[in-house]
Structure formats: structure tokens, C-alpha cells
Amino acid sequence: DPAGLTPRPAVLDPLARIVGRPFADAARETDFGPYGEREQLNPRPIDLNPGPGAWLIYLRANDRVLSRPRVVNGSEAPRMAPTALGRAMLSDPSERSAVLAALVDRALADPGHEDSREIIRSIAKLAVSLNGLPPSTFDVFRLLETFPLLGPMILYGAAANEIEPILRLADNLKMAWCLVPQSYWKEAWEVWGEHFSATFPDNLGDVAKLMTGKRAALLHHEPSLAPLLGMSGSSEPITVIANSFLNRSGDRIRTEISNPFRPRFEALLPNWPFGRQFWRAADAPILAARIARGEMTEPLGDDELTAIKDIARAHPRYFTAAFAAQFGAW
What we know:
- By secondary structure, the protein is α+β, with helices and mostly antiparallel strands.
- Strands 1, 2, 3, 4 and 5 form a five-stranded antiparallel beta sheet that branches.
- The radius of gyration is 23 Å and the shape is globular.
- The chain has helices at 37-41, 84-89, 96-109, 114-129, 139-142, 150-157, 163-167, 182-199, 204-221, 238-249, 279-292, 302-314, 316-327; strands at 17-22, 30-34, 54-61, 64-65, 70-73.
- Helix 3 (96-109) packs across helix 4 (114-129) and helix 12 (302-314) crosses helix 13.
């Protein structure tokens, strides 16, 4: 609200609490106490001095974020940020995106360096801490859309129990994990494998278990990544997989939505032996696999990306099988 820190629209939730994150250490959420019934029924600007530097302040109820985060400046100058990411977050708002991009670019230029790993782990820590905050809250996550190595580096550097919340970042970004080319997954695997092997040279068997455990966690939550992570795909022809999909799920395929992949990518897609109303669903994993194989570098439009993510979510069995089969069809 222009008159102060007042939720618009009004919040009515008995569990609402005022929370905030300092820009210097955005993975740390501080609870400033309840946003009580009196304040909810008679909203007034929240009087809050959160602490040194700039903060994001919002209302939360458990894992639900109830209000849009607002920037509040504390009465004291910001303290030194504990990480390179925190120092970049303290940049002038007009420069922050460029500073963060330069930070990530530097880290990915030498991803095996200790400083690079620290930056990547700090991004992972922030991602795991979101707990309902949309990733677009922080400019650094938008860099997953433009730095394809960043995602695999974050994921392979994460603990197994951190992988699922990191994968969820893609739900609200203009990206999909299955579109990250295989070469970046391989590079991240090698960088982290070399790091853990150098750190634990006398326990290489445990290092192998650690890395395969990370891969298993990735596949548990995102099965379509199997061919990108070096796992063999289906040997069935694409048309057999597609026909089985139609026989199994034809009545659940949304046929009223136009196909954004054609005619733009007509030359890259099959001439399916069934009705065109099903081609949007059938095309999505085929085009995704061609992108992941590096056959196509032309950026997707919003409608095309949305369609791929929609089909992967609505028909995961077909998408995973067709993606793997197309990826292996050299």
C-alpha cells in the first residue's frame, strides 16, 4: 500500500505472521511475530524496523505466503554479507541483475574452483529456503533461464533431500529441466565427482554411492531426465509409444488447444498417423528431446515452452517414454 506496509488485499488468516529476509543473507527468514486478528480486521501500516540494511517483508502462515514481499530499509547501514551472493544482492536495484549475472558467469567459467562451489551452494541454500515464496522473488533464479549449466551444477551439488525443492524452481520460471542439453548435465556430474573424489580420496566407493544417489534422487522426482543423465531409453518405435498413449489416454488429452509447434517446427516433427487434434500432445516430448540433444538452438516462445511443460505434467508416462525414445534415436 502507498501509505505504508499494509497488505492489499486484506489478509484474514488466524495463522498469519510477519516474516522477513535480509538481502545480505536472503536464505535466513526471521519471524517478527503474529499479524493478529485486530490488525487483520482493521488494517493499518505495519510499524517495523527489521534490522540493518534492506529486507523483504511479507506475511506467512506455515508454508503459505499470504502477501507480496515488500522491500523495507532498516534504520542501520547493512552489515557485511556472509557470502558473495549476499554481497551481490546488496547491489543497487538498478544494477543487481547485471551484478548477479556477472557473479554466476564467473562461477561457471571455472565451476570446479572453491569460490565457484561456494556461490553455487549459496544459490542452492536460498532455493531450499523458499518455502512457498515464488522463485521470481529473487533475480538470481531467473539466471537458470539463461545459464544452462547453473541448474545441473546446483542439483549435483545439493544433498539428496534438497533436490526436490530445487527442481520445483522450474514450475515458475521460463525453463524446463528436460530442455537443458545433456552436455551440461555431464559437465556438472564430472565437476562434482572430481571434487568429492579429491576430498575423500580414500573413500572412492562412498563417493560413487554419493553421486549415484544424487542421480537416483533426480530421477525419482524427474524421470524424464533419464537419457540426459546417461540412462538408456526405450527401444520401442516412437509411433508405437504414441499409439499406446492415445489408446490409454486419448479421452484425457486436451484437443481444444491449438498446436504451437507447427508449422514452425514441422520439419523436426513426425507426420503422425492419427488425428491432428492430438498432435500438440504427441509433439511435445519429440521437440523437447531434439532441443536436449542440441539439434535446435532457436529459443522457444512462451506458448511452446508452456505446452512442453503442460504435457510433461499432464501425461508424464507418455512424455518420459517418448522423450527417451526420441533422444536415443540417432
